[in-house]
From TrEMBL:
Protein family (similarity comment): Belongs to the bactofilin family.
Lineage: superkingdom: Bacteria
Region Disordered: start-end pairs: 116-150
Lineage, opening ranks: Bacteria, Pseudomonadati, Pseudomonadota, Betaproteobacteria, Burkholderiales
Stated name of the protein: Polymer-forming cytoskeletal protein
Length: 150
C-alpha cells in the first residue's frame, strides 16, 4: 500500500458540532464546536477557522482561533489566537500576530496525548506496567483514542 497524503478539510462556512478524531492531517477553516484530535500529520486551524474545544496533534499550527487547550507532541506554531492552556513537548514558535490567554507548559513527550490518566503517586506502578506489556502498535490508533474518550 502506498503512503498517500490524507488531509481532511473543514471549509469556510462549514460547521461541525461534536468531537473529531482523525489519523491523518486536518485543516479547519470553518467552525468546529468540539475537540479536534489528529494522531498523525498536521493539525491546522486556518485564518477564519474556529475550534471551540481542545486541539491535539503531532504538529499543530494555529492561524485562526482556538477557544480551548492546545496539546502538541511535536512542533507548535501559533500566529492566531488561543484562549486556553498550551502543552507542548517539541518546539514552539509564536508569530507576530499570536495572542495567548492561558499558560504555556513544556512537558515530556509521554505526558502529552499518548499518556493515560495516572492518579498522583502511581507513576512508578504505571512505568512498570508499561515496561512489562509493550503491545505492538496498530497501524491506526483512532479506535484506541475513541475508546479512551468514552
Amino acid at each position: 500500500m502506498k503512503n498517500e497524503l490524507n488531509i481532511t478539510l473543514i471549509s469556510p462556512g462549514c460547521t461541525i458540532s461534536g468531537d473529531m478524531i482523525v489519523d491523518h492531517g486536518v485543516s479547519c477553516f470553518g467552525l468546529l464546536d468540539g475537540g479536534l484530535v489528529s494522531t498523525q500529520g498536521l493539525l491546522h486551524v486556518g485564518e477564519g477557522g474556529l475550534v471551540k474545544g481542545t486541539a491535539q496533534g503531532d504538529h499543530v499550527r494555529i492561524d485562526g482561533r482556538v477557544d480551548g487547550n492546545v496539546h502538541a507532541r511535536g512542533t507548535l506554531e501559533i500566529n492566531g489566537h488561543v484562549s486556553g492552556d498550551i502543552i507542548y513537548c517539541g518546539t514552539i514558535r509564536l508569530g507576530p500576530r499570536a495572542a495567548l490567554n492561558g499558560t504555556i507548559k513544556r512537558v515530556a513527550r509521554m505526558l502529552t496525548i499518548e499518556a493515560e490518566q495516572i492518579p498522583p503517586g502511581n507513576e512508578r506502578q504505571a512505568e512498570q506496567t508499561d515496561a512489562q506489556a509493550a503491545p505492538e502498535r496498530p497501524e491506526s490508533n483512532v479506535t484506541e483514542l475513541s475508546r479512551a474518550k468514552a
